[in-house]
Every structure is written in structure tokens, then in C-alpha cells.
Amino acid sequence: MSPQQKPPRVVAELGRPETPEETAARKAEDSRKYRSRKTVSNLVYSLLATLGLVLVIVLIVPRSDTSLLPDVDYHAAAADAQEVRDEVILDPELPDDWTSNGAKLSIVDDPAISDWYIGLITPDEQFIGIRQGFDANATWQSQQLDDSLADSTITIDGVTWTVYDNRDGQSSSDNGNIEYALATEAGTSTILIFGTAETSDFRTVAEAVAGQVKANAEQVKGNS
Length: 224
Description:
Blueprint: E1 10-11, E2 16-17, H1 20-60, H2 74-82, E3 99-106, E4 115-121, E5 127-134, H3 138-144, E6 152-156, E7 159-165, E8 180-186, E9 189-195, H4 199-223
Antiparallel strand pairs: 1-2, 3-4, 4-5, 5-9, 6-7, 7-8, 8-9
């Protein structure tokens, strides 16, 4: 044997040097195991990267969470509105688990229609809006209700309301959040209650404003 040549490596498991075939097989198996470990590692890194991306999206994308909406004191806004309007401003007393996300008196020049608006959130986080138009006309009402078609009438605490029910999907237009609505006229006010809540919640609101609706009607009779 030449002094430059190293003797073949003795493999402990075999108790002898590897044959060329065994060496080739061992290297092939080591290569396979290495590729397998790399594949698993790459999969883990990919999953971690995906989870990180999802977390970033969850953190930065706005969510429709009514708990994040402002809780507006519509009673105080109604009191302010009453100081500048002769009509009785609607100001319903509702259970404590109801909240408001908006209240505004809009004053515009003729021929536009001035109105009073309250946005309500029900206990199960559905929306009901109240809009009181002053000296309004049929066109204004139709626009506010997204051209909904009258369905029937209902009387609640002595007030007769026209019902607009778009829940069956038969409406010819996209009614947005006007899934259900009640409309009535009292004196110079056109009063609309509309939204996405259950019928029982609409009845709760209609009962809460019934006295003020009737007061608007009586106000006109007293002035005639």
C-alpha cells in the first residue's frame, strides 16, 4: 500500500471497511434524510410566515364591531334640537341595553327637507333609525326608504303606521339597511322608523315615541 493512501474506514456496525457499494448507499441515504429535514423545516417556516401574515391582517383591517361605535347621548341632542324647532322632537325612552350611535338635527334651506335623526343599536346589535322630517313630501319619504313599497298597516298605541317589509327579498331595489320600516304623519312631521332589527324591536321603538307622535298631531289641531 502506498504511504499516501489511507486505509479504508472501518465501519463499527460492520466491523470492517465499507465496500464501494455500501459507501454509495450510505451517502444516498444521508442525502435523502437531509432533503427530508429541509422539506419539513421549509414547511414549518412557511406556516409560521402565513400565520404571521394573518395576524397582521387581523390587527390592521377594520372590523364591524358595534362595541367600538360611539355611545351618543341622543336625549341631550334632542333637548338641543327642541330649542330650535316648534315640532315635538322625538326622544324615545328605551331600556338601558339599547344604545345610540348618532343623533343630529339637519337644518337646510327650502326646497330641501330639514329633519331630526337618531341611530339606535338594539340589544342584539341590530340597527334602527328614526327620522323625523319637517314639512316633508312623498318624494322625501320615498328617498329615505330607498323606494320601498308599502306592505300593510299596523296600529301601535293608537298610532297607525304604514309597514314597509323588504325581508322577503322581493323588493325591486337594493334597500341596504331598510329591511323593515314604519312610516306615519303627525302634524307637520313625517316620521320614519327603519332598519334591520326584529319586528318586536320596531314595536318597542314605536311604543316609545307614540306619545310624542300624537303630541305632534295635537299640536297642529291646537293651532288650527
